[in-house]
Amino acid sequence: MGKQSSRPFLMTRNLHPEVQESPIHFLKKNIISNEFFYIRNHFPYPNIHQGNFEVTIEGNVMYPYHFHLAQLRQLPSVTIDLVLECAGNKRSKFSPKVHGEQWEDGAIHQGSWRGVPLKDLLAITGIGQGAKEVLFTGHDMGEKGKSPHASFSRSLPIEKALHPDTIIAYECNGKEIPYKHGAPIRLIVPGWYAMASVKWLKSIAVINHRFDGPFQTDDYVYYPHQNSKEDSFPVTKINVNSTIQKPLNYSKLKRGENLVRGIAWSGNGPISKIEISYDNGVTWEKAIKEKNGVTSFYAWESWTYLWNIDKPGEYVILSKATDSTGSQPLEPFWNQKGYGYNAVHRTHVKVE
């Protein structure tokens, strides 16, 4: 019998459609290999023939165009290291509980994406007057609400679509994008939750109105009141956040020095500091950022903290990240669909 692998694997959250979570607590590298890339699908996998694949740009443009994959590969490209986080990451931590995939901490991935800036493609097609949004439609489709043949479609404001870091990607981590993650072409929107980065990209349309598809105006919307849709607003940028990777929750530790490590990230720019508390937030001490070779504006920060504890007992270790807009709150912003959880991370331990 051959030697079995000791590596952790994805945790299944749903089978139809497939939803799987990354073992984020066990991963030490800052670029996560594709085999540990979490999976979030809304529909069954589409049937795609990559040999002669193309994406269409149409709508309010001067020169509608069909870009073949081979053409995209010949255009000037950029490579961006970035976090892709499901908007429902950490949903299981909300109280009261909310419906949806009960993610823990692993609906997140950091990878190196290569592709063509969307603005370069739109420069080729030209943009007509009055353009307000750019609509992206994937090949994946299925039943949604009353529609038996709904496609996954999302739009971006024209300003975000034209941002130089919004790209039409064809590689992830130096290889072709894996089929389960949107091959052969995927939209990548750095700094926004991953629902914006439409997979299996089929068509792009410049439009003069606000798109109101179900994945834009029903799902991926913050509803802050339990029994009302008042004061709702769209899910866009990734909230400042952190995760303690070590020690694991409810671990037993020995007295003396113990290493605490984790990651921190934000869609609003670089992390300015990470702090640790083990007295329920009365006092905070700075963690140390690691030099990890990833310097992208959109990448997470790896950090460590050496905790010297001599008194036995039960403790809750808190981690709090801060970016240019503020710090993680002590309590989450509760919303009906469980998006954007970013309260300080809590890990319970017992020191013996």
From TrEMBL:
Endpoints of the signal sequence: none
One Pfam family of this chain: Mo-co_dimer
Membrane-crossing segments per the record: none
Recorded superkingdom: Bacteria
Ranges where the Moybdenum cofactor oxidoreductase dimerisation domain occurs: 235-351
InterPro entries listed in its UniProt record: MoCF_OxRdtse_dimer (IPR005066), OxRdtase_Mopterin-bd_dom (IPR000572)
Domain annotation Oxidoreductase molybdopterin-binding: ranges: 42-214
Name of the protein in its database record: Sulfite oxidase
UniProt organism field: Evansella tamaricis
